[in-house]
Amino acid sequence: MRKRNGFLIAGLVLTCALAALILLGFFWTPYDPNAMAAGPKFDAPSPAHWMGTDNFGRDIFSRVLKGAGTTVSIALATLLIGAVCGSLAGALTGYFGGPADEVLMRLNDALTAFPSILLALVVISILGPGSRLNVMTALGLVFIPSFARVTRTAFASLRDVNYIKSARLMGASSRRILLVHMLPNTAPVLLPALTIGFNNAVLAEASMSFLGIGATPPNASLGYMLSEAQGMLFAAPWYAAGTGLVVVLLVFSVGLLGEGLRRRDRGVL
Amino acid sequence: MSEELVLSLRHVYSGYSDGAGLFGKRQRQEVLHDVSFDVRHGEILGLVGESGTGKSTLARTILGMVRPDRGEVVHYTKRPQMIFQDPYSSLNPFYSVEWTLEEPLRVYGKYGRAERKRRVREMLERVELTEDYLKAKPSELSGGQRQRVSIAAALIRRPKFLIADEPVSALDVTIQAQILDLLRALRRELDLSYLFISHDLNVVYQLCDRVLVMKRGRIVEQGTVDEIFDHPKEDYTKQLLLAAE
Predict the structure, then answer these.
(1) Domain of A113, in residue numbers
(2) Contacts of B108 in chain A (CB under 8 A)
(3) Engineered SS bond to A221: which of A70, A208, A266, B106, CB 3.0-4.6 Å?
(4) Closest residue in chain A to residue B157, using alpha carbons only
């Protein structure tokens, strides 16, 4: 019997629990997240308000639930754009190689040389700030190069493996070779990359909203709330603490999940 | 043995371009020089030579993975297949034995599910594996079992010509003998011809009918096993034989 993979189990449990909470937040929160005077202003955490209230008396726990939903959906959309486009480009260049590979990878190097937040800022300022769709697009574009690189390496390393040569000899189409013969064998590299990408996307979204170019009120995201909390750090320290805790928990759980996946596929426990 | 041919090469020159960047100049490495030979129907033709003489490049050229610079490669049979030296990388680790054996038939697309399953079971029996192995993943198989599965996968669409690139050199001696027996039996049962690439002259002596001796991309001598082993003409062949004793 294989040794139990503690990382994977802990990661799965935590991630599922958080996902359930966030899903719940889409439909129900203890108070209306934007209702003023849901309780007294600057109320410390109590059974009625688990994470206390802010300067308008809004319930922070309700706001965090809702905000986490916003953050996670932006992160997932970012991941979708980045992973789909990046993996496609990486898989094709990795498998076929040639001049297109060289050109794309040098372009990739150039993009990687920029700090990703800076790049996202540039894209946002071109697209126009404030809209959730623009934030997703900007972050998604910024995430393409790293996925392309990881996928390219994974596919290139399989290109000359004997079972792929056999697949070519039996007359399998390139599409079939890429999707059926190669893709499942790149999972040990791609799945952890996805979890790391998700975490980076959460943090990137939070940073952008913190800087005021991400999601805008009333659709508060965790990053926007953190920047709000900064202004009342002494009056309501629980605001920053609660919001920060959720960001950390989210990244931590998915990080655990990724590490668990990596260990399972490498056979290291 | 009939004089019908399965493959003929005439004055083939081939090689590969080594990795140049976007702006670098591609260097063409000539590996094969003026290679001509035939594979006759039903024979096992051995190809011997030190490593690095272009044996694998020759196999790749024959199968069209490398385009020859000059000369012609003529196949008289359809879809020749190849089995590889390393049994650990020749099976897709993600899939079961059954999937791997079925895949060439699926790709061909002319057989229904029931017919595919029937052919897979029949071929599994031919390579002397039981149906218990159908659901096994490659990681659960030994080197010899993997090589049997590779052979079965290569033969499932009934090619008439098989290139075997050092198919037993990664295996233990007793397993080697079993695989060689299997290759011999399959040739008879399925009417196959082989090009058997090896650096192991003892294996070639046991298995092959004729032998090609290759040195630095040229065929320096060819003849029947007896001619080559008992009366070698070239110094290079004599050296190889001495080294193998």
Answers:
(1) 20-26+59-266
(2) 170-171
(3) A70
(4) A170
Which residue from A minimizes the CA distance to B91?
A: A163
Is A163 part of the contact surface with chain B (CB cutoff 8 Å)? Answer: yes
What does the pLDDT look like over A113-168, one tens digit per residue?
Answer: 888 778 888 888 888 876 788 888 888 998 999 899 999 999 999 998 999 999 99
Residues B94-130 have pLDDT tens digits of 999 999 999 999 999 889 999 999 999 999 999 999 9
A12 inside domain: no
Distance (Å, whole) CA B223 – CA A198 = 64
DSSP-derived pairing of the beta strands B210-215 and B44-48: parallel
> Which of A103, A106, A172 lies closest to B107 in CB terms?
A172
Whether A8 is in a domain gets the answer: no
As for how many domains chain A has, the answer is 1
Does the beta-carbon distance from B91 to A102 stay under 8 Å? Answer: no
Q: Do A168 and B104 count as a contact with CB atoms less than 8 A apart?
A: no
For residue A137, the domain's CATH number is 1.10.3720.10
Among A103, A104, A158, A163, the strongest candidate for a mutation testing the B interface, having the largest count of B CBs within 10 A, is: A163
Q: Is A53 within a domain? A: no
Task: Kindly provide the ipTM of the predicted complex, given to two decimals.
Answer: 0.88
- Whether residue A223 is contained in a domain is answered as yes
